[in-house]
Amino acid sequence: MRQGSGGQAVIRFRAVGVSLLLVHLLLVGWLTLRPLDVPWMTAANLQPFAGIKADLTLGPAAAIRRIGGDLLLLAPLGVLLPMAGGRLLVSPWASLARTVAAGALISLGIELGQTGVPGQVVDVDSLILNTVGVALAHVLLVPACRARLRRGKQLRIRVLTSVAHEVPQGATPTISGVGIAP
């Protein structure tokens, strides 16, 4: 294993993260910002938790489908944003704060984008649930994945250093017969 391959692995890891992030955002944009043909539209929901309460009155199956859909829509960002960042040694709280803030801003951008799309309705509860979904995905997956990746990296470093200590380096070269300048 070459010494520089660890850096290349991080670059590949980040490239995969950025690629998956872009694919996910394109899919979310297509799902949420395309015009819909609807015979009628509800008014925009700007009162927090009013839509969630209304969803709960529809029954368990409909509530799970609607609330779960909003929770899962941007949840992959909780993993993909840190993956695209490619950092292993970072404060868990700082990573969570950055990821949740980015998820909330993306969700806000989607909600604001929906104001000009026929058939799409702005819902503040979607913003809340999308952000909670990002936070849950981050908390449940990212710390464990980072710890596992760090353990694997430490194992590779130990193997490389033990191999480096076993290989004879030879004598230090000296230059003889060189005088001192006057």
UniProtKB/TrEMBL annotation:
It comes from the Bacteria. Residues 22-141 form the VanZ-like domain. The keyword Electron transport does not apply. Keywords: Membrane, Transmembrane, Transmembrane helix. The chain crosses the membrane at residues 12-33, 71-89, 96-115, 127-149. This is VanZ family protein.
